[in-house]
């Protein structure tokens, strides 16, 4: 299979402060499985099965992805039809204001998911009591319950499950809660030097003491107690999106941390953050959304590893240029896209067989 133009090295025109959108679109366009979902028109099958869906956003997203990967010229493409649809779905994207790339990603994935959700009638099942089962079993049941109402290609790829454990400091009783996550927002430790991505993940999962007014009610003591809260990852997604919290607030940005966060391009091993340490949780980086400039004004670009040729490219609105993998790490990195090493290996086997 040799497709000379299927190389995805096409830029997106800036329609006026739309670099946040272009940056995320290029990261998603280089998400192998999502790209193929669009190129093979598989989304249409899901749309057909979902009669109540207004399919406009998914359709425009697929059209744009197809244009990026089948264009016979290297001329930049205008994402204006797509923008029309995303602002219908999320009116906050009307106009030409600079927006936050991570928030845009959340809205976009949510919008796409809703249109291709395989569940057409959400069940109204009563709250079940999972307290008599093991934590692992509870996690599985909660995940299956989530899939009963939210089940799509987007969920297959991006959604994982987080476990939070609350331990009573008085009696030692531990209660657990399981929640789906679409990305992880990681705090950056304030320091004068550089930090590592592992430092950020350790800060995110660090034990947190809830005391004073924050004291939760212990189910065994039947009263409010000082408790310790801790996060672990129960289920790892195929695509892990890590958002570095560089901005002190999302809506009204007051300051930006330009700390250099050192992250690995290959073999990010997250086993120490897993609920079950025997799982395989190794990831490889394939895209980064970067933000340069201050909290008041700035510019977004994307660095993506092309899934066909395996080389890195800079996507700066309409311009696409090759880059060295040694330049991928910078203090501009804002949203990191990792793919599970297990699923990339599967792909190689599929290609070779
Ligand atoms: Zn207790």
Automatic annotation (TrEMBL):
Enzyme nomenclature, EC number:
3.4.19.12
Instruction: List the signal peptide residues.
Output: 1-18
| Enzyme class, broadest EC rank | hydrolase
InterPro entries for the chain: Papain-like_cys_pep_sf (IPR038765), Peptidase_C19_UCH (IPR001394), Ub_carboxyl-term_hydrolase (IPR050185), USP (IPR028889), USP_CS (IPR018200)
Q: Which GO terms describe its molecular function?
A: cysteine-type deubiquitinase activity; metal ion binding
CDD domains assigned to the protein according to its UniProt record, in alphabetical order:
Peptidase_C19R
Where does it primarily localize?
Answer: cytoplasm
One cellular component term (GO) for this entry is: perinuclear region of cytoplasm
Query: Where is it localised?
Result: Cytoplasm, Perinuclear region
Q: Does the keyword Cell cycle apply?
A: no
Q: Does the keyword Membrane apply?
A: no
Its keywords, alphabetically, are:
Biological rhythms, Cytoplasm, Hydrolase, Metal-binding, Protease, Signal, Thiol protease, Ubl conjugation pathway, Zinc
Give the UniProt family note. Belongs to the peptidase C19 family. USP2 subfamily.
Give the protein name, as stated in the record. Answer: Ubiquitin carboxyl-terminal hydrolase 2
Q: Which gene is transcribed and translated to give this protein?
A: LOC107688622
